[in-house]
Design goal:
Number of helices: 11
CATH class of the largest domain: Alpha Beta
Radius of gyration: 27 Å
Structural class: alpha/beta
Low-confidence stretches: 251-267, 293-350, 355-359
Order of helices and strands: EEEHEHEHEEEHEHEEHHHHHHEEEEEEEE
CATH superfamily of the largest domain: ATPase, nucleotide binding domain
CATH topology of the largest domain: Nucleotidyltransferase, domain 5
Helix content: 25-40%
Largest sheet: 6 strands, mixed
Strand content: 25-35%
Mean pLDDT: 75
C-alpha cells in the first residue's frame, strides 16, 4: 500500500492505492490545488491534514509534471518540488514522469492484443502522450499548453475545446507517423486527465484523426469500495495517472526514439513453472516408491521387449486470428473496441424482458455504442463506427433517444431497447 501522487503546477492528486494482479485497488482519494495555498507552508499543512484524515501511507510514488524520464527524488531539480511532501511526513521513494506513468498504464491495461494505441493524459497545464503496443513503447512526448485560451465569452467552452484539439491533433499525427516507421499502425486513442469535461474532446478528435477515441472516465481496472465509488467515479479520469505511477518501473521505460521490448510478468511465470516442476517431480517420486505393484503380466514380460507404442496426442486447433485493421474498411468508419465486444459476451443485466417481449425483439446483433456526446445543443453517438443522432436508422432499428450513458433504439415491433455505452442491453 502506497500513496500515489500526481503533482503539477495547478493539481495535486493523492490516492491510497495498491497494485494487485494488474488491478489498482483504491481506498482513499483527495485532490488539492497548490495555487490556492498561500505559500509552501500552507500547502505543506494541507498535505499533513490530508495524510491524517485519509490515513495515507508515508511511502509515496509521485508522478511529477515537468520532470525528465528516469529522474530520482534526490535530483537537485526535483527536490524543491518534493519539499512540501517531505515536510508533511511522506517518504518519496520514486519519481515518475507522466510519459512513464502512461507507459505503465498501457502495460497493465491491454484492451487490444497486438494493437498500437495512443495513451494521452491531458491536464490543465500540460499534455503527455505515448504510443505503445504490448511489450513495446513506440513514441513518447510531453508538452505544455495554455488552458486559458478561449476561457472567456459565450462560446468559451467550445473555443477552449477546439484550441486543445489544435494542439493535440498534430502531435497525434506525428506519433502515428513514428509508429508507422516502426511497423505499427495507430488504431485508437485513449485519454485521461483532470481537464474538466474531458469527454467533449472525443468528437473533435475523431473528426480530425479518423480514429476511435475513448475516455477513461469509468472505474474499469480500479477496485474501489462501495462507499468510495461515487467520488471515485467523478474523479476517475483525474486519478488514472497517479494510480498508474505505482506500476511504473524505475528507469525501465525507454526515452524518446529508443523503443524497448519488455517481458511482462516473466519472473512470476518462471517461478510458477519451477514450482509446478518441483511438485510434479515429488509426486512422481512418491508414486514410484509407494505406488501399487505392477501387474503380473508386466512383471513376467520378456526382457528384450522394450518397444512401446506412442501415445497419440491431440493438439487443439489454433483460434482464428482477427485482423484489427480489417474492421475499419472506409474512411470515417471506426473499428469497434475489443473491450465493447468482451462486455457484450457478459450476461445481461438483472432487468430482463418478459417472454412476450423477447419474441418481439429482432434477432440481428445489437449496435455497438462506443462514444456518446451530450451537450446543450446536440446529442450524438458513435454507433458501429458512425456518428449518428436521434431519428437515424441503424439496420432495422431507429434511434429514439440518446442519454449520457446509453442509446435507446426502437424496433419495428415498437419495442424499445436501451444499449449502454460498451454494449450491455436492457429494456427501458
Amino acid at each position: 500500500m502506497v500513496t500515489a501522487v500526481e503533482l503539477g503546477p495547478d493539481t495535486c492528486v493523492l490516492v491510497r492505492a495498491a497494485l494487485r494482479r494488474g488491478e489498482v485497488r483504491v481506498s482513499a482519494v483527495e485532490t488539492l490545488d497548490p495555487n490556492k495555498a498561500s505559500g509552501v507552508d500552507a500547502f505543506t499543512s494541507a498535505l499533513k491534514e490530508a495524510r491524517r484524515v485519509h490515513r495515507l501511507p508515508r511511502r509515496a510514488r509521485v508522478v511529477l509534471w515537468g520532470v525528465k524520464d528516469g529522474a530520482g527524488p534526490r535530483d537537485a531539480a526535483v527536490q524543491p518540488q518534493l519539499a512540501p511532501f517531505t515536510a508533511a511526513g511522506f517518504q518519496v521513494e520514486r519519481v515518475v514522469s507522466p510519459c512513464d506513468a502512461l507507459a505503465a498504464l498501457a502495460r497493465i491495461r491491454t484492451p487490444r492484443p497486438d494493437a498500437a494505441i495512443a495513451w494521452v493524459a491531458v491536464d490543465r497545464a500540460g499534455v503527455a502522450m505515448v504510443v505503445a503496443r504490448p511489450g513495446e513503447l513506440l513514441y513518447s512526448h510531453a508538452f505544455n499548453w495554455n488552458s486559458t485560451i478561449g476561457a472567456r465569452g459565450s462560446q468559451a467552452r467550445l473555443l477552449q475545446r477546439y484550441s486543445l484539439v489544435s494542439y493535440l491533433a498534430p502531435e497525434l499525427k506525428r506519433a502515428a507517423a513514428r509508429a508507422r516507421e516502426k511497423g505499427a499502425r495507430l488504431e485508437a486513442v485513449i485519454t485521461c486527465g483532470n481537464l474538466p469535461d474531458l469527454r467533449s474532446l472525443t468528437m473533435p478528435l475523431i473528426e480530425e484523426l479518423d480514429l476511435e477515441v475513448e475516455t477513461l472516465d469509468s472505474l474499469d481496472g480500479l477496485d474501489v469500495p462501495l462507499a468510495l465509488k461515487d467520488r471515485a467515479a467523478d474523479l476517475a479520469p483525474a486519478i488514472r495517472l497517479a494510480c498508474a505511477g505505482i506500476a511504473a518501473r524505475p528507469v525501465r521505460m525507454p526515452h524518446l526514439g529508443a523503443p524497448q521490448r519488455t517481458r511482462i510478468g516473466a519472473p512470476r511465470a518462471l517461478v510458477a513453472a519451477a514450482l509446478i516442476a518441483v511438485a510434479a517431480g515429488m509426486g512422481w517420486l512418491w508414486y514410484s516408491q509407494r505406488g501399487p505393484a505392477a501387474p503380473a503380466s508386466t512383471q513376467n514380460a520378456a526382457p528384450h521387449s522394450t518397444t512401446t507404442s506412442p501415445v497419440p496426442v491431440t493438439t487443439p486447433a489454433p483460434l482464428p486470428r482477427v485482423d484489427a485493421s480489417s474492421t475499419a474498411a472506409t474512411r470515417g468508419t471506426v473499428a469497434a473496441p475489443v473491450v465493447a465486444s468482451e462486455r457484450r459476451a457478459q450476461p445481461a443485466p438483472a432487468r430482463r424482458p418478459q417472454p412476450q417481449q423477447r419474441e418481439a425483439l429482432l434477432d440481428e446483433p445489437l449496435p455497438k455504442v462506443s462514444t456518446i456526446l451530450v451537450s446543450d445543443d446536440r446529442r450524438l453517438a458513435m454507433i458501429d463506427g458512425h456518428v449518428l443522432s436521434v431519428g437515424d436508422a441503424v439496420g432495422h432499428r431507429v434511434i429514439s433517444a440518446i442519454e449520457p450513458r446509453a442509446v435507446v433504439f426502437r424496433e419495428p415491433s415498437g419495442a424499445q431497447v436501451r444499449v449502454r455505452l460498451g454494449g450491455s442491453r436492457e429494456l427501458p
